[in-house]
Amino acid sequence: MIAIGSEKQAALDWVEANRKRLSQFHQQIWHYAETAFREYRSARAYCELLRAEGFQVEEGSAGMPTAFLATFGEGRPVLGTYAEYDAVPENSQQPVPYRAPREGLHPWAPGHTDPHSALGVAALAGVLGAKAAMARHGLRGTLRFFGEPAEKVCGSKPVHAAKGYYDGADAYISYHPGATSTTVWDTHCGAYWSAVFTFECLDPETWIDQSLLPFPGRAHAGARCPAALDAVCLMYTTTKYTKEAMFPHAGTWTLNEFILVGGQCTSDNLPPRLAQIQYAWRAPTLGIQEQIARVLEKNAQHAAESTGCRLSSRWVTKTRVGLANHVLADLTYRNLELVGPPVPGEEARAFAREIQKNLGLQPMSDPFDDVSQRLVTPEEHEAQLRRNLPGWQLNFTSDDYVEYTWHAPTVRLFTGRPTLRPPAPGYQYPAWARNALGGVPGCIDPMTFVAGKTIAATLIDLLTRPEDLARARAEFEERTGGGVGGGLWVAPLLPRNFVPPIDLRWPEYVTTPRGDEWWIPTPHPDLR
Question: Which residues of the chain have pLDDT under 50?
């Protein structure tokens, strides 16, 4: 068990004293439920709060309107963490124990799934707790607190990294709600790449010989050029067929698609002029990512040539894989032990029993599973994770926090989110139940404030124990072959002049004379 000095106790006390205020702030972010690159109200709320707390705030950092960098203090060490606040389309849910999209909104509007609303507030609590202790005890150092939009498309952190925002730091803390409470030991997240392929039908009139038509020039009466929508469909189908040839089905890699623009509305026999399809793929190595990228590019070229379209492609993001740091993982876990695991109270248990009852299940005396309510050592968590992975696979799943790991020693912290106990092995609760728990303070706050206190305590250790920071730095330099720029170091994969894809047709709320609406039409009432 790690010791508690007066500085650390001050940080922990501040978080505890401000639980109600920060819980209310979490509710504000949770109800905004804004999606990737469109988190305008959420980012503004963070910036206003941080300025009121004495931070210097740069809004719109790295050319992303909903990103920010807040800084407090001066000198070394330079320590950082971040907030995320993007929600997920089609996951709207009220904080009630039955399925109910939020009132007044489209049934397919977004909601928080992970939830990033709590992720951001947990990190905020940790930074503000450390800042309070710094002010009270005269601690020297600099705190960086980033606002990171669009995590669901791994959108902001590769951009911040490429443009130099992470440079010059001494350590970073990455937090995420998890299945249990622990820190990551070796198997950090892998790479996530995403690109948009755009098909434009610029000259449909040249598709056939117009002189052969009974009425030359009457394009709507002749054979229509396949055009942009057909190109997207062909790209989609070809990629499904060639997925087997991208990489052997070993390890864990995935490939998914999303149609951003579907040809728009056309009239009569005129061809759709524009369509876009986004691909996102994750893998444990950069080599696999590059192989998938090559196949996708060939498929896109084929689809364009077959449909009379011009092809252009644009990167959305390219992340590296995560780099471990045992020193920080151990230090942070010892602070997690000091704080203890998140334990839901009776209010949360009563809410969870109502969910079980409404699902036709027998309510349980303790409706939350044991794993989410206990601590797991980093080594034990690593062993559990490795049981189902091949030996050669060194990274697993994806998250763009990995960008931080290549610029300073970084720890990945999890605290157990409220998870319902299954009535039988293999039973899966519906997603709405999980999402609803994230909006109930009594359910989500224990997880949030265990994380906030752990982050605050770890920041204080790094401010007051230079020997721990030196050991973490030594490990970072060994793993990178000399630190940033070393022989084993991997540079950002996006260029420094990268233009963030904020202009693409991402799902968002829109304001019309009818009021605020979700970006797609409301379905027929019978289909809701």
Answer: 527-528
Select from 366, 482, 340 the least CA-distant residue to 418.
366
User: Would you state the structure tokens that stand for residue 227, as one six-digit string?
Assistant: 């055009």
- Residue 527: the pLDDT is 44
CA distance 80 to 171: 7
Predicted confidence (pLDDT) per residue in 501-520, tens digit: 999 999 999 888 878 888 88
Q: Kindly indicate whether the domain formed by 6-190+321-480 is annotated with CATH number 3.40.630.10.
A: yes
User: Measuring CA to CA, which residue among 20, 22, 68 is closest to residue 44?
Assistant: 68
Nearest to 528 by CA among 95, 105, 34: 105
d(CA 119, CA 162): 24
Residue 503 CB partners (closer than 8 Å, separation 6+): none
Give the list of residues 6+ apart from residue 310 with CB closer than 8 angstroms, or none: 199, 200, 201, 202, 304
Is beta strand 509-512 parallel, antiparallel or unpaired with respect to 515-518? Answer: antiparallel
Contact in structure between 129 and 19 (CB atoms under 8 Å): no
Q: Please identify which residue in the block is written with the tokens 């205020």.
A: 21
Q: How far apart are alpha carbons 421 and 511 in whole angstroms? A: 41
For the record, the structure tokens of 508 come out as 């968002």
- Find, among 400, 337, 339, the residue nearest to 122 by Cα: 339
433 phi/psi in degrees, rounded to 5:
-65, -45
For 37-164, strand residue ranges (E) read: 56-59, 68-74, 78-84, 141-148
Q: Closest Cα partner for 454 from 9, 12, 5, 3? A: 12
User: According to the model, what pLDDT value does residue 267 have?
Assistant: 67
| Nearest in space to 212 (alpha carbons), one of 201, 223, 225 | 223
Token pair, residue 330, equals 């151990």
Q: In DSSP terms, which residues pair with 182 in a beta bridge?
A: 414
Instruction: Give the total residue count for the chain.
Output: 528
Contact 225, 269 (CB under 8 A): no
Q: How far is CA 1 from CA 11, 16, 58, 342, 350, in A?
A: 18, 20, 38, 17, 33
The architecture CATH gives domain 191-318 = 2-Layer Sandwich (3.30)
Segments making up each domain of the chain, as ranges: 6-190+321-480, 191-318
